[in-house]
């Protein structure tokens, strides 16, 4: 019998809303996290190099996909971004599956899947619940525009490819406002984990094995 999969908590939110920070909070609380953006970056030095080089000639430098060169080709060009996503998303899913198998083998009760485009790519079917991180629009804008190399145009192009924040919040099982500070976020996530563990314990008692 294969080991029971952990409870899969999907973590999502629009650009600058606090996904990475919240993912780190979960890691600090001892929960394994799979980061889809990091998986994309990793596969650009591995299995993604050949297919991306074939589709986007000139973006591979020193046997790695150069993300700045690739970003300049795809942000703002919908057709090009779609071609890139068709290559990258299946490779990310394969890494995600390997991560979950490993977490199951380790007996982890909960695992977090940090998926920026969770709703946009229909990934809600692969998780047991979704946590959406959010912040007021002005806070989001200030955070994103403070990043080196960010322009209004790139910000707008990225936002245009993401589901509006209000719609994400409407669909979410859980919502975290990251504009309230780090300590409140840590406390809220510790409490959420406690809730999820209790729920999982109750399921196990009812013999709800692999649900
Ligand atoms: C274009 C790339 C090379 C730019 O890399 P770079 O390091 O400059 O930016 P980074 O990956 O950190 O992304 C910046 C922001 O844009 C968002 N974003 C990235 N790709 C997309 C996309 N296809 N649609 C909407 N938002 C996106 C990210 O979630 C993040 O919020 C890279 O984003 C990429 O390969 N994107 C396509 C793969 C993809 O869909 N990734 C999203 C998660 S699986
Ligand atoms: N709970 C919080 N309290 C205070 N500041 C926060 C909190 N969460 C995030 N921030 C701040 O907001 C900024 C953006 O957060 P983060 O990098 O986690 O966003 P993100 O959603 O991962 O962004 P991207 O989609 O671009 O990867 C960071 O400067 C971070 O310090």
UniProtKB/TrEMBL annotation:
UniProt-annotated location(s): Cytoplasm
Pathway: Cofactor biosynthesis; coenzyme A biosynthesis; CoA from (R)-pantothenate: step 5/5
NCBIfam families, A to Z: dephospho-CoA kinase
EC number assigned by the record: 2.7.1.24
Cross-referenced PROSITE patterns: DPCK
SUPFAM superfamilies attached to this UniProt entry: P-loop containing nucleoside triphosphate hydrolases
Annotated HAMAP family: Dephospho_CoA_kinase
PANTHER family (alphabetical): BIFUNCTIONAL COENZYME A SYNTHASE-RELATED, DEPHOSPHO-COA KINASE-RELATED
Protein name according to UniProt: Dephospho-CoA kinase
Organism per entry: Ancylobacter vacuolatus
Highest taxon above the source species: Bacteria
UniProt keyword terms in alphabetical order: ATP-binding, Coenzyme A biosynthesis, Cytoplasm, Kinase, Nucleotide-binding, Transferase
EC top class named in words: transferase
Free-text function comment from the UniProt entry: Catalyzes the phosphorylation of the 3'-hydroxyl group of dephosphocoenzyme A to form coenzyme A.
Swiss-Prot/TrEMBL catalytic activity: 3'-dephospho-CoA + ATP = ADP + CoA + H(+)
Family statement: Belongs to the CoaE family.
Chain positions recorded as ATP binding sites: 16-21
GO molecular function (one): dephospho-CoA kinase activity
Lineage: Bacteria, Pseudomonadati, Pseudomonadota, Alphaproteobacteria, Hyphomicrobiales
């Amino acid at each position: 019998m294969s080991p029971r999969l952990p409870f899969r908590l999907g973590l999502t939110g629009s650009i600058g809303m606090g996904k990475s920070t919240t993912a780190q909070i979960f890691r600090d609380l001892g929960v394994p996290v799979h980061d889809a953006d990091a998986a994309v970056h990793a596969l650009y030095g591995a299995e993604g190099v050949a297919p991306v080089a074939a589709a986007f000639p000139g973006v591979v430098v020193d046997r790695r996909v150069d993300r700045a060169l690739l970003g300049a080709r795809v942000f703002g060009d919908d057709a090009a971004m779609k071609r890139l996503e068709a290559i990258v998303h299946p490779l990310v899913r394969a890494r995600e599956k390997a991560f979950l198998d490993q977490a199951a083998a380790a007996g982890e009760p909960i695992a977090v899947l940090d998926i920026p485009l969770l709703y946009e790519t229909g990934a809600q079917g692969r998780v047991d619940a979704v946590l959406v991180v959010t912040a007021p629009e002005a806070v989001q804008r200030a955070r994103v525009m403070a990043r080196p190399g960010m322009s209004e145009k790139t910000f707008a192009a990225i936002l245009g490819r993401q589901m509006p924040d209000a719609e994400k919040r409407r669909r979410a099982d859980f919502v975290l406002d990251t504009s309230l500070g780090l300590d409140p976020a840590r406390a809220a996530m510790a409490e959420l984990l406690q809730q999820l563990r209790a729920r999982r314990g109750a399921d196990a008692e009812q013999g709800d094995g692999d649900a």
